[in-house]
Each structure stands twice: as C-alpha cells, then as structure tokens.
Amino acid sequence: MTTLTPPRREKKSQRKLLLYIPLLLATAFYLIPLYLMLNTGFKSFAEVDLQTMWRLPSGLHFDNFTAAFEQLAPALWNSIRLVIPAAFISSVLGSINGFVLARWKFRGADFIFPFLLFGMFIPYQSILIPLVEFMRDINLYGGVPGLVLTHVIYGIPITTLTFRNYYATVPNELVESARIDGAGLLETYWNILLPLSIPSFVVVLIWQFTSAWNDFLFAVVLTSPANWPITVALNNMAGSQIIEWNVQMAGAFIAALPTLLVYIFLGRYFLRGLLAGALKG
Amino acid sequence: MRFNKDRMLAVALVSPSILAVFIFVYGFIAWSGRVSLSEWVGLLPNYEWAGFSNYANLLQDPRFQIDIRNTVIFTVLFVGGSLLVGLGLAVLLDQGLRGESFFRSLFLFPMAISFIVTGVVWRWLMNPATGSRISGLNLLFDNLGLDFLISRWHTTPQWGIAAIAIPAIWQMSGYTMALYLGGLRAIPESIREAARVDGATELQIYRFQILPMLRPITLSAMIILGHISLKVFDLIVAMAGKQVALDVPAIYMWTTTFDGNFYNRGAAIGMMLLLSVAVLVIPYLWYTLRTEAKV
User: Fold this and answer.
1) Mean of the pLDDT values across residues B208-237?
2) Which of A89, A239, B172, B181 has a Cα-to-Cα distance from B261 of 20 to 30 A?
3) What confidence tens digit (pLDDT) does each residue in A113-161 have?
4) Which CATH architecture has domain A67-276?
C-alpha cells in the first residue's frame, strides 16, 4: 500500500494540472471583452486602429475616457438620479411588505403570494402600452421621476419576497417575547426585525441598484433624450456613425463601472440576490 | 384591542403595494389585452372592436414568422450553451483546484453588467469585415492561424441570430455555473466514496451518480434562462440595432408600437410574449409552491 501511494498521488496532481487548460481557456473567454474595453480605452487617439486593436497601448492615455465621459456625463447624472431613490424606496417598501406577509397570516395571503411571484416573470412588453398611457395621464412621461416610480412598482414582487423569505426565518419566540413585553406592530418591526435584516437590506439595495442601472426597456420607452439614463445614451452612442469605436469602448467601461465595483466589493451580497432573484429578467 | 389595531395597521401597510401590483401588473395586462383586440393605429387611442384580427394578421406576418424562427434558434443555442458551459465550469471548479474562488468570481462578473454594455463590446468583437479591414475576433483568429474560425457572425445570412447566443452565453453561463456548483456541493462525499469503492471511475461517477442528481437544477435553469431568452431585447438592439434579419418579438413590439404607432399589433405581440412566458413559468411556479408547502 505504501509503495502504491506516491505514484498515485503524482498521477492525481498531473490530472489536476491538466484541468487548468480548460479553466484558462474559459478565463480568456470571459476576459476578452474586458481586455478590449480597457486596452482600447487607454490608447491615445493616434494609436487607435481597428487593425491593431489587440496590441497593447504605448502608455496610459485618457483621451478616450475623457471624450466618452464628456458625451455621457448628463446620462450618468440621470442614472444616479434614477438609481438612488429607486433602490432606497424599493428596499423600504419591500421590507415593510415582507415583514407583514411573514408575520401576519391574514385571509387571502396564500392567494396573493403566487400572483406576486408571477409578477416577477412577466415580459414587460405586455404592460408597456398602458404604462406609457398612464405616465402621460399623470404627467410623469419623459422624466426621471416616472422611471423611478416604474422601477419601484415592478420591483415590489422581488423585494417583498426577498424580505419575506428572510423574516420567515426569524424565530417566532423573538417576536412573541416582544409582544408579551407590550410592543406593538411597529415597535416589533423597528426594534427587533429591522436591525436583524441589515444584510437583507444590502442584498435588496444592490439588486435594485443593479436592475435600475442596467435597465434599457423602461428607460428607452419612458424617457426623453434629456433624461436618458446611461444605457440608452450608450446604445445611442454605439449606433451613431460619428462617434468612434474606441470612444464607445471607453463609454461601455464607464457604464459598466458602478455595477462592477459593487460586484467586486459586495460580491457576496450580489450573489445572494442573484440566486434569489435572477428570476426577474 | 391592541391586536385589532395592529391587524388594521398591518393591512394598511401592505395594501398599497398589493393594490399597485394588481393594477400595474394584472390591470395593465387586461388593458393591453383590450388594446390587442382593438383597431388602435395612430397616436390617439381607438378602442373600436377588432376581434382577434390582430392576432390572425400576426400569424400571417412574414416578419413575425422570422421572429418565431429567431427566438427558437436563439433559445436552443443560448439555453443549451449556458447549461453546458455552466456545468463544465462547475465540475472543473469542484475538483478542489487552487484559485477556485477567483475563477468563480471571474465567471460571474458578466452578470453585473448590462446587456447594452455587453452588446456594444461584442458588436466590435464580432466585426464581420474581411480582407485588409479585418478586426475583432476574426483578426485574432487570423493572427493565431485559426482561419477556419473566421466568421461573418451576426451578419451571416439566415443564421445571424445564432451568433448573438455567444455574448448571451458569455453573460449568463456564470449563473448556471453558480447553480450547478451549489448542487454539487450539496452532494455528500460519501456517495462518491461508495462509488469509488465499487470501482467506478471519476467519469462514471459523474455520468451515473452525480448528473442524475443535478436534474432538478437543470430544470430550474432551463426555465429561468428560457424565459429570459423569450424576452431577449437589449442585447440584440445594442449589437445590431433594428435589423429585420435579427428581429425578435420584443423588438418588433417596440418598433411597431412606438415607431410605427400600430398599438393594436404591438399589444398583440406583448400578449403573445406573455402567453409564451406563462406556459413556461406557471407550471414551474405551481410545482415549486406545492413542494414548498409540503416541506
């Protein structure tokens, strides 16, 4: 037995080394678009050429990023004006709804639940015409506030269900003991459940931030050019014949950066939201 | 007394949200349904009854037939590709290699990016120019001596939609990897050990023991990716604009409604999209909720 072990282990480690070949090929596949964005972005205007697009830049130049930023600055500001209130209001609403649905069994709760769930899956094309008509009627068509409202409303199912699933795991004794101490509904929520659910808040905030930042459909239909968020402005930039591809690459990176940073620094929470909520397309 | 007060407060807190969902989801679906049965063409609403003529016209419409064909091709390649790539990566990462968490994060990062960014970048990677103007992946293949891989990508006649599946797989395969990896981690080591003692090779263990256990994950992933695929919109818009060759129902709905003012037709496309998603998702939700209730 002892004589057999070393060669076997060697064989095993060789096999492991071989496994790195497909892994590195996959790494190349995932990194190529990122390489193209950054590599092109850091070139000077003079060295930008489609025929040499894979070659490294001569140094770090910021021509492309500056040009793209000048183009996209108003849209970036619109996206910020959109994403912060949308994520914040959605989280607060989701938390309150989730709390009530997890703690208070009222008649019809079982009936509401599947309807709420299906609301996450619907293709928004099936509500788009009424949505535009409604926004026109209440004079929110074309601006950022209407888009905030849209993201908040269509975010209710996912945010409510995320919080509900979390609050359902909080032991009943905690809530019961608070009630025996005379705490009402709001005190129980405020003093006991809210402090416990900070991680869920992070998950939902990130989720809504990412969906609103990356959304294109609602934005392109509901906003006028002056209020375009970053996705619509970037797509418009890419479709234009005048703006060079290198500026587009830098612009794409600028548009991706906020959600990428969230992913890098808060990846754990991002992943949790993803696995709970990637249902929403 | 207090209990009743709390109960009323609870109802008061959730009812605005529930009402909003019922109006903005179900009320608006009903409203779209009504538009799809009307004669509404032009900027002013016109609810004159048209019966099912909009649906009948759509089914005769050559552009809608292209849409259906494109959706089917895209769905098969995108869902199949994401499942295969995701499973392959998950199995690789399950071998206890060094740097596992780095690779896992790397394969997942595209999920944080919008389809628009993905589309804008891949549009240049898949530049179909040839000869002296060759660029993008074609240039890379040319330099590496892999000329047989050079392709017209999404400008290939008839099959251009197949190329769009590549960036879509790039974006979503990390998600299937995460799902499968979770599944693999949930399988107790004792099962593998038992098979090894019986003399099974690693490959046989995966083929006969582990893959069958991952079947429920495959089903969930197919349904989630499938419904994303039916709704595909921004990726194609960013890569190719509004070309009829790469048209899908979501783009047709958008252009015919908001560029062409054919609200009746746009609503009918929206309803058909909803129907296709519902057929896919409702049985799945029903099954999931039932099993959850049992547990």
Assistant:
1) 94
2) A239
3) 889 989 999 999 999 999 999 999 999 999 999 999 999 999 999 999 9
4) Orthogonal Bundle (1.10)
Of B60, B70, B112, B95, residue with least CA distance to A214: B112
Domains of chain B: 63-294 (1.10.3720.10)
Mean residue pLDDT across chain A:
89
CA distance B186 to A129: 45
Residue B229 exposed, middle or buried by CB count within 10 Å (0-12, 13-18, 19+): buried
Q: How many CB atoms lie within 10 A of CB A280?
A: 18
Show the 3-state SS of chain A. Answer: CCCCHHHHHHHHHHHHHHHHHHHHHHHHHHHHHHHHHHHHHCCCHHHCCHHHCCCCCCCCCCHHHHHHHHHHHHHHHHHHHHHHHHHHHHHHHHHHHHHHHHHCCCCCHHHHHHHHHHCCCCCHHHCHHHHHHHHHHCCCCECHHHHHHHHHHHHHHHHHHHHHHHHCCCCHHHHHHHHHCCCCHHHHHHHHHHHHCHHHHHHHHHHHHHHHHHCCHHHHHHECHHHCCHHHHHHHHHHCCCCCHHHHHHHHHHHHHHHHHHHHHCHHHHHHHHHHHCCCC
- B157-167 confidence digits (pLDDT tens): 899 999 999 99
Q: Would you say how long chain B is, in residues? A: 295
- CB-CB contact of A83 with A209 (8 Å): yes
Query: What confidence tier does B3 reach under pLDDT thresholds 50, 70, 90?
Result: low
Give the integer Cα–Cα distance in Å for A99 and A165: 9
Among residues A18, A264, A269, which one has the least CA distance to residue B106?
A264
pLDDT, residue A33, reads 96
Q: What is the ipTM of this complex?
A: 0.93
Distance CA B11, CA B28 (A): 24
Residues in chain B closer than 8 A to A236 (CB atoms): none
Here the tokens at position A198 are: 């900070």
Cα(A16)–Cα(A270) distance, integer angstroms: 30
Phi, then psi, of B253 in degrees rounded to 5: -60, -45
Mind listing the pLDDT tens digit for each residue in A172-231?
888 888 888 888 888 888 888 899 999 999 999 999 999 999 999 999 999 999 999 999
As a whole number, the mean pLDDT across chain B is: 92
List the single best residue of A126, A159, A162, A241 to mutate versus B (max B Cβ within 10 A).
A126
Question: Half-sphere exposure of residue A200, counting CA atoms within 13 Å on the CB side?
Answer: 28
Sequence length of chain A is: 281
Q: Which residues on B lie below 8 Å from A251 (Cβ)?
A: 120
- Give B51-63 pLDDT, tens digit per residue: 999 999 999 999 9
Choose the mutation target among B7, B25, B223 for the interface with A, i.e. most A CBs under 10 Å. B25
What is the C-alpha separation between B259 and B241, in angstroms, rounded?
14
